[in-house]
UniProtKB/TrEMBL annotation:
GO molecular function, one term: O-acyltransferase activity
GO cellular component terms listed in the entry, alphabetical order: cytosol
The protein's name in its UniProt record: Acyltransferase
Keyword Manganese: no
UniProt family annotation: Belongs to the transferase hexapeptide repeat family.
Any Pfam family the entry gives: Hexapep
Native source organism of the sequence: Bacteroides muris
Keywords: Acyltransferase, Repeat, Transferase
Length: 142
């Protein structure tokens, strides 16, 4: 697994096929997150992944007579914030600076700087493009 500098990955993260996962610098991955690398996951810089988020890159094809699988790389660009209990499905790209609200299910691409919520996630607003922060500098245990 490729992990950038200054990342904070909490305990109890379920990582599947880590050799197909890339995480950029200054990212935070909170507890009880699922990172399913079987179809590939690319996470940019300064991404905040809250508790109990599920990022799936492989799923069963419900129309397949043999119950085969579909996969697709999940791309999460820089400065994205995935709030608690978000689910991201295979093949989705979440654009730079997007915010996905708690318990949302992302079934299709989300444009940069969008705020999306719901099941399926729908865009409800835009985020200001003044992002300069760096994550991964928690001082809790100094």
């Amino acid at each position: 697994m490729k992990i950038g500098k200054h990342c904070a990955i909490c305990r109890n993260v379920d990582i599947r096929s880590p050799y197909r996962i890339e995480i950029g610098e200054h990212c935070t991955v909170n507890k009880r997150v699922v990172l399913d690398g079987r179809g590939g996951v690319k996470i940019g810089k300064n991404v905040d992944i809250a508790q109990e988020v599920n990022i799936w890159s492989l799923q069963h094809d419900y129309n397949s007579p043999t119950y085969s699988t579909n996969s697709g790389i999940v791309v999460i660009e820089d400065y994205v914030w995935l709030a608690s209990r978000v689910t991201v499905l295979p093949g989705v790209t979440i654009g730079r600076g997007a915010v996905i609200g708690t318990c949302s299910v992302v079934t299709k691409d989300i444009p940069p700087m969008s705020i999306a919520v719901g099941n399926p996630a729908k865009i409800i607003g835009r985020r200001d493009d003044c992002l300069e922060y760096e994550l991964g500098h928690r001082g809790w245990f100094k």
